[in-house]
Amino acid sequence: MSAPARLPIASALAILLIASPVSAEAQDATAQGLVSAVLGWEAQHKLAKGAVVVMRGGEIVATGSMGSGDPAAPARFASLSKSITAICAAQLVAAERLTLETPVGAVLGETLDAIAAGTGVADITLGQLLSQSSGLANDPAQGEAMLAFAPFDEPRLEEQAEIGLTQEVGEKVYGYNNLNYVLVGRMIEAVAQEPYQDYCSREVLTPLGIEDASLAPGWQALSAFGGWQMSTLSFARFLDYYDPAKGLLPIPVDQWPAAEVGGGASYGLGALYRQAGTGYNIWNIGAWTFDSDAGSASFGAYFAVLDPDLRVVVTFEPALDDAARAALDQAIGQALTP
Fold first, then answer.
1. d(CA 96, CA 159)
2. Alpha-carbon span 190 to 311, nearest angstrom
3. What is the H or E stretch that residue 168 is in?
4. Residue 175: which of 138, 121, 223 has the closest Cα?
5. How far apart are alpha carbons 57 and 306 in whole angstroms?
6. pLDDT grade, residue 308 (50/70/90)?
7. CB–CB of 121/129 below 8 Å?
8. Which of 83, 173, 185, 336 has its CA 20 to 30 A from that of 269?
9. Coil, strand or helix: which one is 332?
10. Is the entire prediction scored with pTM above 0.85?
């Protein structure tokens, strides 16, 4: 078995500034070029299943598929699920039910007193969790540790938090850890007084007309950090939250809690971002590979929202390795380079 993939920091796309084409023909060519680049990458790596959706100005302008993939069929989104969790938490902040400075202990105090007293976990803020800068090092979703939550067919946020919060908090710098989003999920449940997936589906996805989203059957235990399933088309619609023209983002990007990851990029609300022109490029890539008697799966997903209004979403199986996923990012960057 292998652990869930960590986000690549350096990439061609991360430093790319996008200029909007001036003609409909140029826009069309850009979209088709992106689809061709992704399908070429999928063919090169002999993927069994893949799909790509390109949107511009809030409209679908191109799609493609590989093998048994279908942009309209359910796909698993691995760590891109963190973006959904982050937007869900940000809505609670906008509603003044939480703040980015709310400490974990103020929401989960009784649980923390029982399992993490004296570790410093109670003082970690929501903003530090969202930006992966909590200082937590132990990740119960890595490798064999995940077997503690088998079977994987139901959410296990409370158990994951209990097992994960067993060591003192370290330095508050960027450190990618699924446990951060386990705790965000638990804070959402505590404040909303209902299961994480029910609240976030109703409050984040349903308002966009997304009706095919759920925690992935057989992998609900990934929940707030990696468990969402929907079509590639639906996830592209979820990215409406990052469209400034729609005004849906509960916390503007320039006010996100931020952890610097290098090269001018930061990790904020469930994604990496960098200023680009008058706006921001926002992107994320996630993958999950697990092989045991308790469950086996391998899948990955990628999205990029590029200044000013271009979106790309890719889903694929199997997950491949870090180098192959970095090659996807590079292929998209090259397709956008004049």
1. 28
2. 33
3. none
4. 138
5. 11
6. low
7. no
8. 336
9. helix
10. yes
Q: How far apart are CA 116 and CA 183, in angstroms?
A: 13
- pLDDT tens digits along 146-198: 999 999 999 999 999 988 888 889 999 999 999 999 999 999 999 999 999 99
Q: What is the mean pLDDT of residues 53-68?
A: 93
Residue 133 backbone dihedrals phi, psi, to 5 degrees: -130, 35
Backbone angles phi, psi at 153, to 5 degrees: -95, 20
Report the C-alpha gap between 207 and 4 in whole angstroms. Answer: 30
| Gap between the Cα atoms of 92 and 14, Å rounded | 29
**pLDDT value at position 2?**
46
Q: How many CB atoms lie within 10 A of CB 270?
A: 28
Query: CB 25: neighbour CB atoms within 10 A?
Result: 9
Contact indicator for 270, 88 with CB cutoff of 8 Å: no
Q: CA torsion sign, 199 to 200 to 203 to 207?
A: negative
How many Å apart are CA 201 and CA 189, to the nearest integer? 13
- Cα separation, 235 vs 212, in Å, equals 10
What CATH number does domain 13-335 carry, 3.40.710.10, 3.30.10.20, 3.40.50.1000, 2.40.128.10?
Answer: 3.40.710.10
Helix boundaries (H) for the chain = 24-44, 81-94, 104-115, 126-130, 157-164, 178-192, 196-200, 223-226, 232-238, 322-335
**Residue 136 contacts residue 177 (beta carbons within 8 Å):** yes
- The mean of the pLDDT values for the chain is 90
According to the model, what pLDDT value does residue 100 have? Answer: 98
DSSP letter, residue 125? B
330: left (phi over 0), alpha (psi -120 to 50) or beta: alpha
Query: Could you tell me if 312 and 53 are in contact, meaning their C-beta atoms sit under 8 angstroms apart?
Result: yes
User: Which among 261, 327, 326, 315 has a CA at the least distance from the CA of 288?
Assistant: 315
What is the rounded CA–CA span in Å between residue 299 and residue 315? Answer: 8
Q: In whole angstroms, what separates CA 38 from the centre of its chain?
A: 19
Cβ 20 vs Cβ 278: under 8 Å:
no
